[in-house]
Amino acid sequence: MRLRQRFYLVEVLIGLGITAAHFFANLGRHTARHVFGSKTARGAVTFQYPEERRPYSPRLRSLHRLVRREDGSPRCVACMMCETVCPAHCIYIVAAEHPNPEIEKVPERFDIDLGKCVFCGYCVEACPEDAIRMDTGILEFSSYSRRGMIYTKETLLGLEPAEPDGTPRSPIPIPADRTPNL
Amino acid sequence: MSATLTDLGIALGRVGFVMLFVLNMGGLLTWVERKQSAVMQDRIGANRASIFGLRLFGLFHPLADAIKMLTKEDFVPARADRALFNLAPLVSVVFALVAFAAIPFGDVLRIGGREIPLQAVTLNAGILYVFAMLSLGVYGVMMAGWASANNYALLGGQRAAALMITAEVAIGASIMGVAMVYGSLDMMTIVRGQGAALLPQYLGNWIPKWGILTQPLAFILFLTAGIAATKRIPFDFPEGESEIIGYFVEYSGMKFGMFMMADFVETVVIAGMTTALFLGGWQVPYLAADGFHFPWGADLPLSHLTVVTLQVFVFWLKVAVMCWFLMLVRWTLPRFRYDQAMRLGWLGLFPLSILNIVATGLVLLWRAP
User: Fold this and answer.
1) Rounded Cα–Cα distance for residues A171 and A161 (Å)
2) Residues 6+ away with beta carbon under 8 Å from B260
C-alpha cells in the first residue's frame, strides 16, 4: 500500500465522497419524481416487482402454451416429439383420433409437470407443427402440492402470448390447491 | 410550595424534552438507516409497511418492527443466568439514554423572571458525565455476553470490552484538547465559548470559534473513537454478524430490540456530543442574545424567544446532520478486523490525541498574555 492508503483517512474521505455523491444525486432524482412529478427521473434501479415488471426479452422462455387452430382445437398432432426430446420427462401425452381425416391425431391429454420442467425449450424446438410455445411471459407459477404443478391441456390452451415488452396477456393460472388472495 | 412545584415541573420538562427527542431520533434512525442506505446504493428501501394503504415512504416500518419484536417469543437459554440475562439489555439502553442529559440544546431561557438553562441536567463536569454513561453502557453488553452461557456471545462481550477501552481512552484524550481551549468541563461553557470570534485580530468577526476549527485533529480522533464507541460498522466486531453473531446471539424479541435501540441512541449521543464540542452546539453564526450581528455591519434584532427557538432548532439540525454523516460512514466502510481496530486505537488514535494535548498546551502557553 502506498503511504496515502496506509494513512487511511484520505481514502475514507474519497469513499465517503462517492457514496455521498450517489446519495445526493439519487435524492435529487427522487425529489424530481415524487415532488415535481417528473416521469423520466429514476432515483433507484429497483423495480417494484408485483406492481411493476421489468421488460422481458422476447426470447425469454416462460410458461408454455398450446397454440390453437382457427376452430379452437389444439394445433398439436400428438406426434410425441416433445415428449421424446424432453430431458426432464415432464410432458405426458395421450393421443386420440381426430374427427377430420386430414389431421393425423389430436392429444386427448397433454400434461406438463412444471415441478420437473427445466425450461430448456427443447419441446418448442422439436415441435413440427409449431404447436407449443413458451412466450406467455408468465413466470409466477407455484403450488402447495406437487399435484398442483401439473398443468393440463385445457389450462395450456387458454393462454395467450405476451405483449411485445413481455407483459403477460393472460392471468396467471391458479392451481386447484391454491385459493386466490390467500 | 408552588415555587417548588414549578421548579419540579421545569426540571421534568427539561428532562422530558431531551428524552422525547433522543428516543424519537433513535426510533427515526432505524428508518433513516434503511432509507439512507437504499438511496446511497441506488435502491428504494423498505416501503411496504402501510396503514390503510398509506405508506409515507416506509415511515411505519419502525412501528412494524416494534410490534414484531413485542409479539415474538422471549427465549432464555436453559443454562443462562436469568437475572443478569434480563438485566443486560436494560443496562445497555438506560445508560445510552441518560448520557444525553448533560448536552445543552439551547442557551438560557428567560421566562417569568426565571432563568432556565436548556439542558436536562446542569453539571459543571458535563463532559465527564456523558463519557462515564457511555462507558457504563458497555457493562450491559459484557453482561449479555457472560450471562448467555454461549461461547460466541462471550467472545462478542469480550470484544466489546476491548473495543470500549480502546475507544474510551481515545475519546477522553481527544476531548482534553477541547476542554483546554475553552477552559471548562461544563458543556454549556464550552458551547458558549464557541460563540466567540476566531482570531479576532486577524479575521475580525467573520469566523466563529467552533471546536472543529480550533481542534481539527481532535475532531477527527473524537469522531473515529465515537463511532467505535457506538459499536457500529466499521467497528462492529462485538457483533461480527458473519463470524460470531456477537453478544446478543441468544436474545430475541424486544430484548434484542433494546440492544439495537441502544446502538441507535448511542449514535444520537455521539452526534450530540460532536455537535456540542466541535460544531458550536446551539450557536448560530453571528446570532447573539439580542439578534443577528453580521460582520459586514448589518443588524437584525430578534426577540428573546425567537433567538432561543432558533438556537434549539439549529442544535437539533446539527445533530441530525451528524447522524446523517455517521450513517454515511456506517454504509460506506467495511468492517475492521479485530486486530486492525486495536492497532488503530492504540497506535493511531491514542498517541495522536496525546500529541494533540501537548500541541494545544504549547499553543495556549505561547498565546497566553
Assistant:
1) 11
2) B30
**Core vs surface per residue B39-65: b (16+ CB within 10 A) or e:** bbbbbbbbbebeeeeeeeebbbbbeeb
DSSP code of residue B346: I
A30 inside 8 A of chain B by CB: yes
Summarize chain B as % helix, strand, coil (round to 5): 65, 5, 30
**Whole-number Å distance between alpha carbons of A154 and B274:** 69
Distance CA B92, CA B275 (A): 23
C-beta separation of B364 from B180 below 8 A:
yes
Residue B37, H or E segment: helix B2-40
B176 vs B184: CA distance, rounded Å: 10
Check CB contact of A23 with chain B, cutoff 8 Å: yes
- Find the residue in B nearest to A31 (Cα): B39
**Would you state the cell numbers that stand for residue B95, as one nine-digit string?**
445508560
What digits encode the pLDDT tens for the residues A163-182?
A: 888 888 888 887 666 555 44
Spatial CA neighbour of B10 closest among B130, B109, B126, B129? B109
Longest dimension (CA), chain A: 87
Query: Distance between CA atoms of A45 and A43, rounded to whole angstroms?
Result: 7
How many whole angstroms separate alpha carbon A137 and alpha carbon A53? 11
pTM: 0.86
CA B349 to chain CA centroid, Å, is 19
Q: How far is CA B316 from CA A10, B237, B250, in A?
A: 29, 30, 36
Q: What is the pLDDT of residues B177-189, one digit of tens each?
A: 999 999 888 999 9
B303 touches chain A (CB under 8 A): no
Q: Which helix (H) or strand (E) holds A11?
A: helix A9-34
Residue B320's Cα: distance from chain center in Å?
A: 11
Specify the pairing of strand A150-151 against strand A132-133.
unpaired
Q: B171-191 burial, b for 16+ CB within 10 Å, e for fewer?
A: bbbbbbbbbbbbebbbbbbbb
Task: Tell which of A1, A8, A12, A19 to mutate to test the B interface (max B CBs under 10 Å).
Answer: A19
CA distance B186 to B117: 12
Q: Give the DSSP H/E element, type plus range, for residue B291.
A: strand B291-293
Q: How far apart are CA A159 and CA A151, in angstroms?
A: 11
Distance (Å, rounded) from C-alpha B13 to C-alpha B312? 15
User: What is the nearest CA distance from B331 to chain A, expressed in angstroms?
Assistant: 8
Q: For position B83, what pLDDT does the model report?
A: 93
